[in-house]
Amino acid sequence: GENVEQHPSTLSVQEGDSAVIKCTYSDSASNYFPWYKQELGKRPQLIIDIRSNVGEKKDQRIAVTLNKTAKHFSLHITETQPEDSAVYFCAARYSSASKIIFGSGTRLSIRP
Amino acid sequence: EAGVAQSPRYKIIEKRQSVAFWCNPISGHATLYWYQQILGQGPKLLIQFQNNGVVDDSQLPKDRFSAERLKGVDSTLKIQPAKLEDSAVYLCASKEADTQYFGPGTRLTVL
Fold first, then answer.
1. Whole-angstrom Cα distance, residue B78 to residue A103?
2. Residue among B43, B101, B103 whose CB faces A102 most closely
3. What is the phi-psi region of residue A71: left when phi exceeds 0, alpha when psi lies from -120 to 50, beta otherwise?
4. Beta strands B88-96 and B106-110: pairing type?
């Protein structure tokens, strides 16, 4: 079925260290994978996305990698800062009706 | 550029009552989504519109939920009658190319 699994559910890292969040998807035809950041009480905001014809994409301290064979994709945040604390959601676009399915979220906390 | 607008921002009702939410997408966006986000979970797609037509409503509890987008712009989502488990944030989003833009959401509390 259409499913996106996300791990871990919570993650605490020291300020300045790196954080990695991993997701897997079930539909091999999925071709678009966005990542959203949601701060407490606010709407999800797109932070980075990747398409299936690309293996890696970077935007300053954020990078996303995609392994199509294994149906895995990951978010990497380097040099973490207090403002990175939020809930992060991965998502995958399924080919049927182009709908986007979200993972269950990772609550990232940055320790000072 | 104006973002996705939603109203009301908050709503408290008793179970078995009815409630309606309104969404105005970003101008020119043909695709509109309604999501339900229960506390601590990811957004769950309820319904997807392309202009005024329904593309996907496979996860919409049709015995109590309904949605429409009559003129292909604004949309309303209705719950009748509400249950306790409907307490959640209802997010509207519209799409340009691949990118979804979310509205601020309506926080529904069912007592």
1. 25
2. B43
3. left
4. antiparallel
Residues in chain B closer than 8 A to A91 (CB atoms) = 42
pLDDT tens string A52-99? 888 999 999 999 999 999 999 999 999 999 999 999 999 999 865 678
CB B102 within 8 A of CB B92: yes
Task: Please list, in sequence order, all residues whose beta carbon lies within 8 angstroms of the beta carbon of residue A35, skipping any fewer than 6 positions away.
Answer: A46, A47, A48, A49, A62, A64, A75, A88, A89, A90, A91
Contact (CB<8Å) B100/A100: yes
CA-CA distance, A72 to A58, in Å (whole number)? 17
